[in-house]
What we know:
Blueprint: E1 5-8, H1 14-22, H2 25-30, H3 37-48, E2 52-59, E3 62-73, H4 76-79, E4 81-90, H5 99-113, E5 118-121, H6 128-136
Parallel strand pairs: 4-5
Antiparallel strand pairs: 1-2, 2-3, 3-4
Amino acid sequence: MSDIRFRRATRSDVPAVVGLLADDRLGAQRESPDDLALYERAFTRVEQDPNQLLVVGDRDGRVLATAHLTFVPGLSRRGATRAIVEAVRVSGTERGSGLGTALMRWALDECRSRGCDLVQLTSDLSREDAHRFYRRLGFVQSHAGFKYQL
């Protein structure tokens, strides 16, 4: 994995990131890679917020992985800062190669460097392979998650 570089995403990465988000059973149902205008607007908001970090993993300029980190300062847990990791994706051609592990280890190191006390994530209930992956990394399935669609 030494040939992979993890870095903040740039505007030119948006099509590749959206492609990764759409490249699975669930993403294919909820993403629209043919209409990037919404994603471009969202990228602007992410880029302008210092508590947001959209990351890509690239090899020779080709985006092969992505994750979105959000840093949330708070009062609970004695004033802990939490990191939320979302939208973790690895290119289908790279799954099983160790790239996902490298991405998550990079993300955990980034969270530590920003003073986070806790890292949390959600994963769709149907993503059983992802759940095994996160457990192997040391994540504990400790809470029930809820969503409210607005």
